[in-house]
Amino acid sequence: MRIPVPALLLFALSAPASAGSLDLRIVDQAGKPVPDAVVTVYPAGGVPRGGFSFTPGPVMTQENIAFVPHVLIVPVGATVRFPNHDKVRHHVYSFSKPARFEIKLFGKDETRSYTFTTAGTVALGCNIHDQMSGFIKVVDTPFAAKTNAAGQASISGLALGTAQVTVWHPSLRAKDNEQKSVVPIPASGAVARTVTLILPALR
Amino acid sequence: MRTRLPFPTSRWAIALSSRLTVKLVLFYGAMFAAAALLSLWGTREAIRANAEQTIIREMTVGSSIFDRIAAMQIEQLHRAGEVLGSDFGFRAAAATGDAPTIESALDSLAGRLKLNHAMFVAQDGTITGKPGGFTPRDRERLIAALNEGSETGIARWAGEPHMVAAAPVKAPMLIGWVVFARDMNMADLRALAQLSTADLHPRIEPLAQVPPNLRPIGGRVAAPVQMTADGERILVQARPVQNFGSGDAQLLVLEYSLTQAMQSYMPILWSLLVFGLLGLLVALCGVVIASRSLTRPILALAAAARRVSEGEHVEVPVETQDEIGLLASSFNTMVRDIATRERQIAHMAFHDGLTGLANRTLLREQLALSFQSGDRRGFALFCLDLDNFKSVNDTLGHPTGDALLCEVAARLSAACPTGFVARLGGDEFAIIVRRDGTSETMVARALIAALAEPFAVNGHRIVVGTSIGIARAPQDGEDGIALLKNADLALYRAKNDGKGSFRFFEAAMDAEAQERRSMEIDLHEALRNGELELYFQPLFGLSQNRVTAFEALLRWNHPTRGMVSPVDFIPLAEETGLILPIGEWVLHEACRAARTWPDHIRVAVNVSPVQFRSASLNSVILQALASSGLPPQQLELEVTESLFIENVEATLASLHSLRALGVRVALDDFGTGYSSLSYLRSFPFDKLKIDRSFIIDLQANNGATAMIKAITGLADALGIETTAEGVETIDQLDILRKQGCSQIQGFYFSRPIRAGAVADLIRELDYQEQAVQAA
Prior knowledge:
Chain A: Residues 1-19 form the signal peptide. The complex is a heterodimer. Chain A is mainly beta.
């Protein structure tokens, strides 16, 4: 069941008469841009229930002994496929609360899938390759985005009012690796914010 | 004389010996003791330093052993933790918070690995498992260390050191750590201690409890520190260990008792001390022996030197070739040299340096010996005196005179081979001849003959004769002194008899000599007692027909002897030198008397050769003239021809200096003495006095008249006046007048008269002469 994203967006954003957007830039304490941080926004006016999707689609590939992408955003209820492009076999597992599962030893060009029914962060590992690490962010809001290499994420179509903005990053030392803030959203136009995350130094 | 002790037992010898030996023993003993002590001290220091070095090395080794053991055990824990932490099931349990599963897993491992602590520390700080005896602070430190990323090290929990290993648990993100820990109990540390050779009492202590001077500075281990505890010196060092987490650092403290370490070396030091003392004893014995061998020859030398100083001839044996031997041989050389020199000195004391004959001293000894020997036949002493030796010395010089004396000595020895020949001094010799059948007369003749032969000395042919006086022992003297004196008297007489003769001593000679001696004493007194008196005899000028001068004549009126003739006492005065004060007195008296006379009358004064040769004659004359006020031309000095026998040059020089005073000079006794006319040419005498012997012969002998004529002719030609002495008759006067004599003197006119009678006589003679002229 694949829904084209632009269609979904159009559908979602068409409801409010006017809309504002949020331009976030995520940096660490040293001012360096932080990629692969997930921003989720919950406007005060609420979020539509279901019927939205994200780009890229719900596919977590194992390629070169790594999860690609490293961080994947999917809506609640999405079924994520796990194609193995490596020559070796993988044993994907998750001990995360929203979804505890194991996909045991599947080989090259085999695809398994799993349906995520609860919002939250699912940390993926491979029991064979300890160094493999990936995250699936299961969200219940269409206003979610992942920072690019420049640490930027932009979310548009937000209604006037305040919005709760949550920034997640796997290295963030906080409850659920999240940092939350409330941001006023203008009727139209963009509000720009820079969020600084205190991340442990890379070792 | 002091009894001499044999030298080894003499007291001062022992004193010297002990002094030198004691000195040497003290000196070398002190040196050796110092060396031994120094070596002992040095050894002790070296041992101490070595012990310290060893301990420090042990500490380094022990510390590294500790590090390695600790690291090994911790690594073991760490690996076990990693195994558990990566176990899928454990991870699942840890990720899902399945505490019972986690605890059971930890329990089973703790039992298997004998762990004191096994726990899972979640990232949020929740601890699952057995933290056992954890204080909240320990827990904080643990979590802080885990967050720092510490995985292994030593930490102090509940006051006890622990080896701690932490392994992260990833699911796949880090969700916590498996932490294993084991007590570092005493047993572990003991095991460590057993691995090193020294028991270093290792213990782990918090940095804060370690004294600051032991703490590592800038990552470097501090040097060991010496501490004293319970009287023991202890070397302590603190070394860093791998800490678990940066808080609450721990140090490994190692210590070692230096006192105990040194204890093990004590036997070495004791044996060193004992052997040092033994060595000292041996060295002292050696020094005593060496000093004995040194002092013994020195003492022998000292004793020998003392005996040499007492006059003995002692030599010491030369036993070695070293410095002592050299000293001994030098000593012997010195002793021999001293003996040689003593012989030389003795020879010089008893012998004449020039001829090598015995001297007067030895002659006296020989005479004494001869008297002592009591030879029945007796002996004779010959005293010899060379004739005219003085003129040889004066004319040919002393070197020639000395050479002549040597020749004379040789001839005397040859002529009298059995005699004892001695030189008494100058040209005097003496010979002792034993009476052995040859008569003294023969000996004397032989001696005279031996010296009568001309001598050839230094290219000169010299003729000297000798006069000999002989005294016979024992009849001519009871000892050597008397014999010598008597031989001398005989010699004196022989010389008076004429040169080249000999005389035996006769008792009368002794009486004469004593008479001379007594007269000499009286003559000394005569001048002081005013016993001398001047008489004046007039000289009558034949052309002027009046008295022209008076000759001053000395008379001695002795209180007991009466009038003593000048013939008797003038020679004595000349011999004794009394002629000098007497002559001075005569000059003064004559000048004083003449000052009262008319100006045309001069005074004539006889000057003895002794006076003439004295350096003071000129000043005496000047004084006499000055004190009397007599004009110099009124003083006429009469000198005899004998002056010309000796040094003519000096005589002429003296005559000219007298003439320079302005006085007149007359030649007395002309024609009897030295018959050379050359000096008449050399010095312009004012007057010749023709000797009375010519006058006495005048009437009996025509030749005498011719002689007078010749003399007056010669004098006239040279412009010299003539005076005839001893004129007693009118006939003599007539002849003299006829022969052109200027003046006459004699009894015909007047005997010598006293000074007070001079004035009357002048008057009377002037009258008498007028009568003569008239006749």
